[in-house]
Design goal:
The complex is a heterodimer of chains A (266) and B (159). With 266 residues, chain A is mainly alpha-helical. Helices cover 57% and strands 7% of the residues of chain A. Chain B has 159 residues and is an alpha+beta fold. Chain B contains four helices and six strands; from the N terminus they run ααβββαββαβ. In chain B, strand 4 (119-121) and strand 5 (127-129) form a beta hairpin. The interface between A and B is medium-sized, with 40 and 29 residues.
């Protein structure tokens, strides 16, 4: 279970930092600045890859500083997959909360969408196309983590939040009543783009019954998956965001000889 | 009174700025005076999330900390000299300016960061804006004792 505790700790610390960073910035401590659109950690700049692509499309220019700031986030997604979503993104943390709330209170979501990436890639293409045609940063306005972090700073500075948080309210209603985890699974352009970067050697959950790793078909991994995936199927992409909850659940039953593991090659 | 929003130093021309700014709010975080505020949905969907300076609340003190932090280049990162800033131009309303109405007042002149260059006092001790030197920081608008301010920055500049 330490795996799960580690993730929850990182998730909650990330939310704490959304408030602490702007607070320290105003006090003159600027080692870390920025929001989840673009961060500066000391001399290293990190910009959300889809926001970088959007800006190339809206400006029709390649800005060296912007391109450099994409390196670390793109590299991270190439190697570790969508860990931003599962370990850092405040919207995913909220979505997990919405899901837990719906499950606790027995709310039945109206629809289930099949797990096909068509919806998310269509959304991604549409918002990028809209950015290009309108010469307007449409993706920025639809980045839930970005909006949450900018509004967290606003709360620190002005003791007020903007109506932009309406997007988060819409997501809450959608996920509580209409479709489970619909934002993170099907709509979010930030996660959608990070998912595109997955390749053959990106870290992934692998189901393998080699040697003594026998699966008991106890289904704890299915119950543990916040996205409603079935890790025993062995291929849960492009949805899986490497949170590791299924592995943690499996470990709690099977110990170290569990058939679910993070691997770089399948 | 102002038909456009006043942007931080180094901002691209408005249309280009709206296309380039990623709404990240980093410039607002870098501003030690809290002069840069983030426009909300009520300011319009086009400007939502963009940085705005409202000089009557807090003007820009030209510390030049914000241009270099911009990740997208919506603020020209290479801008370092405050004299080269062109956020807009201050315009005096002579009908409400105390000095132009005969009262002794030189608040704007005294506090102008481009001292004795962007605002000069003429031979009748009335303030006059020198358009080529004015950077549009809004300090004059902030300190003007008239209400509403008799000197107002008209946004939009050359750089």
């Amino acid at each position: 279970m330490t795996r799960k505790i580690a993730r929850k700790t990182v998730q909650l610390s990330s939310i704490g930092l959304l408030f602490l960073v702007p607070f320290l910035n105003r006090k003159g401590i600027t080692a870390v600045t920025g929001t989840l659109y673009s961060l500066a950690v000391g001399p290293v700049w990190l910009t959300d890859p889809v926001i970088g692509v959007q800006t190339i499309l809206t400006t029709m220019r390649l800005d060296a500083t912007l391109l450099l700031s994409l390196l670390v986030p793109v590299g991270l997604a190439l190697v570790l997959g969508r860990v931003f979503c599962s370990w850092v993104c405040p919207q995913n943390t909220l979505s997990e909360l919405f899901d837990a709330l719906a499950n606790r209170t027995g709310i039945r979501r109206l629809f289930t969408l099949p797990f096909t990436p068509i919806v998310r890639y269509t959304v991604l293409v549409l918002v990028l196309l809209a950015s290009l045609v309108l010469r307007f940063p449409v993706v920025s306005l639809l980045s839930a983590p970005g909006i949450i972090s900018v509004q967290a700073a606003n709360l620190v500075y002005e003791a007020a939040v903007g109506l932009e948080l309406g997007l988060i309210a819409v997501i809450a209603v959608l996920e509580l009543f209409i479709v489970r985890c619909v934002w993170c699974n099907h709509l979010c352009p930030v996660g959608g783009f990070l998912g595109l970067l997955r390749n053959r050697s990106t870290m992934k959950v692998v189901f393998s019954e080699d040697g003594s790793r026998a699966c008991g078909r106890c289904r704890v991994c299915i119950d543990a998956c916040g996205l409603g995936l079935d890790p025993m199927e062995g291929r849960v992409y492009p949805y899986c965001h490497n949170c590791g909850d299924c592995i943690a659940a499996c470990e709690s039953v099977k110990g170290s000889e569990n058939p679910l593991q993070f691997r770089f090659r399948s | 009174m102002r038909d456009q929003l006043l942007r931080p130093p180094g901002a691209l021309p408005e249309r280009e700025f709206l296309a380039t700014c990623i709404r990240c709010g980093k410039c607002a975080q870098s501003c030690p005076y809290g002069a840069i505020r983030i426009a909300g949905l009520l300011d319009g969907i086009e400007t939502m999330g963009t940085p705005v300076i409202r000089p009557r609340k807090v003007p820009c003190y030209l510390c030049m900390k914000c241009p270099p932090v911009c990740p997208s280049g919506a603020l020209k990162r290479t801008l370092t000299k405050k004299e080269e800033v062109r956020m807009g131009t201050a315009i005096i309303d002579k009908k409400t300016c105390l000095a132009w109405q005969g009262t002794l007042c030189r608040s704007c002149f005294d506090d102008c960061p481009i001292f004795d260059e962007a605002i000069k006092m003429d031979d009748k001790l009335q303030p006059v804006v020198v358009k080529d030197k004015c950077v549009g920081c809004g300090v004059c608008e902030n300190v003007c004792p008239a209400d509403p301010a008799a000197i107002v920055v008209q946004p939009g500049g050359k750089a």
